[in-house]
Each structure stands twice: as C-alpha cells, then as structure tokens.
Design goal:
Shape of chain B: elongated
Oligomer: heterodimer
Helix content of chain B: under 10%
Strand content of chain B: over 45%
Radius of gyration of chain B: 13 Å
Strand order of the largest sheet of chain B: 1-2-3-4
Number of domains of chain A: 1
Shape of chain A: globular
Number of strands of chain A: 11
Helix content of chain A: under 10%
Radius of gyration of chain A: 17 Å
Distance between the termini of chain B: 25 Å
Strand content of chain A: 35-45%
Structural class of chain A: mainly beta
Largest sheet of chain B: 4 strands, antiparallel
Structural class of chain B: mainly beta
Largest interface: A-B, 36 and 34 residues
Number of helices of chain A: 1
Distance between the termini of chain A: 42 Å
Chain lengths: 160, 47
C-alpha cells in the first residue's frame, strides 16, 4: 500500500508558533524538523497534490491518484528542489532565534477552467505552472510541467 | 520568495505576493507583469 510520507509527519506535529514570517502567510512548523506540508485535492478529479517543504534543504511536489482507495498511486513527482539559505532574524520576544529558509513556505493554487496548477518552489522562479489533464490516456500525460515563470524585476530581492 | 499565489477566475492571470511584500499580477503566458504594488514592510515592529 502506498504510504504518504508527508502525511505521516502530520501525526507528529508539535505546534510551535504560527503566522510569524513578516505576516505574509501562516506557517506551521512541525516538531523539530522545521518542515511543513500542503495537501490539496484538485477539484473535479481524483487527484491529490502533496507539497512538502523543509526549511533550507529542499521542497518537492507529488501528485497522487486516489481514485482507487486500496491502490493509491503516485502519478507525478517533480523531484527534489534544493533550497538556498536565507536567514530570518526574529524579534526579541522569541530570543532572537535565527533560522534559515530557502525553498519558501509553499502554496498551491489551481484553476479548473484551464486545468492549470501552480506552486512556488524556489527563489529562481515565481512559480512552476502545470497542466493537469485527468482524462489523459497515459499516466505520464496527466500532469505536465509547462512553464517556470521567472521572477519579475519588481519582486523583492532582499533577504528578509 | 513567493509566499502566496492565485489565479483569476478565467485562469489567464496570476497574482503573487512575496516575502518582501511585493504583490504582482501577470499573465500566465508572459514574462512581464500588468500590476505591481509594494506593501509596506512591518519588519521593524516591536513585541
């Protein structure tokens, strides 16, 4: 039986603090690992997207076919995206704790009209854009990376 | 680093916001953007 390694992490969550990185997005840090997972079902399909980020190490994304409950199958994996190191200095109330984050906090979005999905994964690109065709005859054609959108000049280039 | 993103309803445009507060709206098929807003930083706040 297929094992969702990212989902297993959820069972070991120790809540530390949330919503603290410049107020941009709520972040839940998992006990000791400083890693977190987003899981989202693609509407009107039997596909599940799992996005896992680990602070300064890496991020990866997989898509699972959950149409057969007894046989959950990974149909697409982007592979590991390595992260750099960005230091965050937290205020004095958190004892000036410094930690690193190089592959972002993670987010997933999907547009049903055009069957497009997007995730931000690293500093080089704003987001990775995917086409999702759940009716494709071949498994390899269900999810396809179609574009890596470059960061625009107006994107912040500071290290927070 | 992009911290949040979403499509418009027709899927033609993408809105992103990064960890520095830069909000951009751009066509998904193009490299240029059509709207930009810099949200003021809250980095200097005190606990």
């Amino acid at each position: 039986m297929q094992v969702f390694t990212e989902l297993k992490l959820v069972t070991r969550v120790t809540f530390k603090f949330s919503n603290y990185l410049e107020g941009a997005i709520a972040v839940i840090l998992l006990g000791g690992n400083l890693s977190w997972t987003h899981v989202k079902e693609i509407p009107s399909t039997k596909l599940l997207v799992s996005l896992h980020h680990h602070r300064n190490k890496s991020a990866n994304m997989s898509v699972f076919d959950i149409s057969k409950r007894a046989q959950i199958k990974e149909i697409y994996s982007l592979g590991e995206v390595s992260g750099g190191s960005i230091n965050y200095l937290l205020p004095s109330c958190l004892k000036n704790c410094i930690f690193s984050l190089g592959t972002g906090y993670g987010d997933i979005t999907y547009n049903s009209r055009r069957n497009l999905g997007a995730v931000p994964l690293d500093k080089k690109f704003s987001y990775y854009l995917f086409n999702v065709d759940s009716n494709a005859s071949k498994t390899k054609d269900i999810v396809k990376l179609i574009r890596k959108s470059k960061c625009h000049s107006q994107c912040s280039n500071h290290q927070s | 680093m992009i911290t949040g993103l979403d499509f418009n309803p027709t899927g033609e445009y993408m809105a992103t916001i990064d960890d520095g507060g830069a909000c951009l709206i751009s066509a998904v098929t193009k490299n240029d953007y059509s709207f930009h807003l810099q949200i003021p930083s809250r980095r200097n706040f005190e606990c």
